[in-house]
Amino acid sequence: MQNQSHDIQSIDNDGNLGKPLAPWTYKNPELFELEYEAMFLMRWQFVGHVSDVQGIGDYLTSDIGRDNVIVLRGKDKKLRAFLNVCRHRASRILEGSGTCRGVIRCPYHGWTYQFDGSLMAVPQQENFPGLDRSEYGLHDVQLEIFHGMIYVRVKGDGPSVAEQFADTEHFFEKYGVADYERLEEPTTQIWEVNWKVAWDNYLENYHIPIGHPGLNRLLKETGEWEDLTSGVNYGVFFLKDKPSSVEVERLYQEQFHHAEKRLPDELKGKWVQFGFSPNLGIDLYPEMMDFFQLIPLSPDETMIKAWFYGHKNPTPEEIELRRLNLLINDPVNDEDRELCIRVQRGLKSHGYRPGPLSQQETAIFNFHELLREQIPVITEGRAPRRGKVAERNETLKAHS
Ligand code: FES
Ligand SMILES: [Fe+2]
After folding, report:
1. pLDDT tens track for 142-174
2. What is the position in ligand 1's atom list of the atom closest to the CA of 110?
3. Whole-angstrom Cα distance, residue 248 to residue 74?
4. Which ligand 1 atom lies nearest to the CA of residue 89?
5. Please, what are the domains in the chain?
6. 1 pocket-lining for ligand 1 (C-beta < 6 Å)
7. What are 298-312's pLDDT values in tens digits?
């Protein structure tokens, strides 16, 4: 996504290029806890699309990490988000997706909540003398809809999704993303890597020529890209005209124009890729869109979730293009997984010191800057003593 002709404004190390984070930061359980709060609970997380929860009582649930969030459409047709934890004794309430009939009922002892999250009824309430139901509604989670995409934020404040995407909103408008619907259930994989290894990898395209021969046969950069300080970056790629030597790629090239009729001229012949730090990739293709989401499980385990959405009522040609797209991009995912696992192994090995970042890796530098700003202990060259990471972080914060 990066292009060397652009100035690097954010890298300012007396003329040196930036260095990535120290290796300890990719395997430390105490730091992982700090990251989880600052980067996942306190930042917007994609959880689905309005078309997934169209009717009254329709809900979806989504993992953020160890937390899980319910998004439910109320009787007033409004979408609301709640933590998926019963206020009685913490049972998870809903699983997967579906429709609640009239109320949200906990499967453990049957506390029931209204669609607005308020506690409506408690079985055998006489055994809870003095219980004030108004104090035990489900915990609200912030929710924002941006062009049909639903984002939630568990804690904290800061810019809205719309503010962060402000300079790129026209893409979502022109592709008509608000009217998309889900093409299939999301798929998940576990990668044996720290979540930052996977995100670093997503943020740079320097590895494409070597790591992704298929993409390299198909794509060339247009030079249109931007790394916005808002936490969003994007890049636009041309599809190469030269027919690929690989059949599925060639078929895709030949049939690509069938899906482009829906798009304005300036977007024809292109793929558009977004990164929404710290963990969401979005690809806009003429025939569909996909999301690539990282869900942190442990310091060296990350769930990779892939979601696919597209136009309602696709033509047979568009359906065929979607099939070809998956045949092209599935191997890319496998390649990335392999590349990331190799990095994780190297980060754990003795003697590695961070090497320089290139100008094509500016987005990584900026992502690491965001981490340094939010979690200052991450700037330490060596891990603080066991049990002291959070304390050291607080000390550094107090002095910043
Ligand atoms: S934990 Fe939900 S009703 Fe008891
Ligand atoms: Fe890749």
Report:
1. 999 999 999 999 999 999 999 999 999 999 999
2. 3
3. 44
4. 1
5. 1-42+167-400 (3.90.380.10), 43-155 (2.102.10.10)
6. no
7. 999 999 999 999 999
